[in-house]
Specification:
With 211 residues, the chain is an alpha+beta fold. Helices cover 48% and strands 11% of the residues. α1 (3-25) packs across α4 (58-70), α5 (89-107) runs parallel beside α6 (128-141) and α5 runs antiparallel to α7. The chain is globular.
Length: 211
């Protein structure tokens, strides 16, 4: 196998493991996992409780847990590995972003409902770091930036977007609107998403086809 292809596949597999662990950690779901990884002989028995992780080796999961803990995405008591693993605030934000990305992947083949989801926010300079991080994550998810603090996307992701806003605690500073037309920006933004979706769709199928 080509080394480059192998490296890409390993990277993708690592991303999938990260998403799985963060998802299971939501609400303290991974009870006993840290302890199980600390005792490899119990790992196979433990995986019966966590079927989403069965395809991964004990060492790989252990490495992932260690990395996520160092990145401050998860937390657990090293002195008592029988306790649950929880998401930190930063981990919850990361989980929200990954959930949004997955949702968008599942929507790229669907017919557009001709409604734009517009996100605008007003965050003061006192919260500059948080504001910049939120803006960066909107771009990572796939939003189109109309103006400095105005982003749009054509997909119905209101629920996931609400989780992201909650993760950043920006309830009173972010406004999410549904609009039918973007005025002079309509054609440019529509062409942007058409080009973005084109490599992912089959011949003669178009996400943003006209009414």
């Amino acid at each position: 196998m080509n080394k480059r292809i192998k490296k890409v596949r390993q990277k993708e597999k690592s991303k999938e493991l990260t998403k799985t662990v963060l998802k299971l950690c939501l609400g303290g779901g991974l009870i006993f996992l840290a302890g199980g990884c600390a005792c490899p002989k119990n790992y196979k028995q433990l995986m019966k409780k966590f079927t989403d992780l069965e395809q991964y080796s004990c060492s790989r999961v252990k490495e992932c847990l260690k990395r996520l803990r160092m990145q401050d995405y998860i937390k657990y008591d090293e002195n008592d590995l029988t306790k649950p693993i929880f998401l930190t605030k930063k981990g919850f934000q990361r989980h929200s972003v990954l959930s949004l990305r997955d949702k968008l992947k599942s929507l790229t083949m669907r017919k557009w409902d001709h409604i734009w989801r517009l996100v605008t926010y007003d965050v003061s300079e006192d919260f500059k770091v948080l504001r910049d991080k939120f803006r960066c994550q909107l771009k990572q998810i796939g939003f189109y930036q109309l103006q400095k603090n105005i982003f749009v996307i054509p997909f119905p992701i209101e629920k996931e977007l609400e989780n992201l806003i909650e993760a950043h605690r920006l309830w009173n500073r972010v406004l999410v609107l549904q609009v039918a037309n973007l005025g002079k920006h309509e054609d440019v933004v529509k062409d942007y998403f058409l080009a973005l979706c084109k490599p992912k769709i089959k011949k003669n199928i178009c996400l943003l086809k006209n009414k």
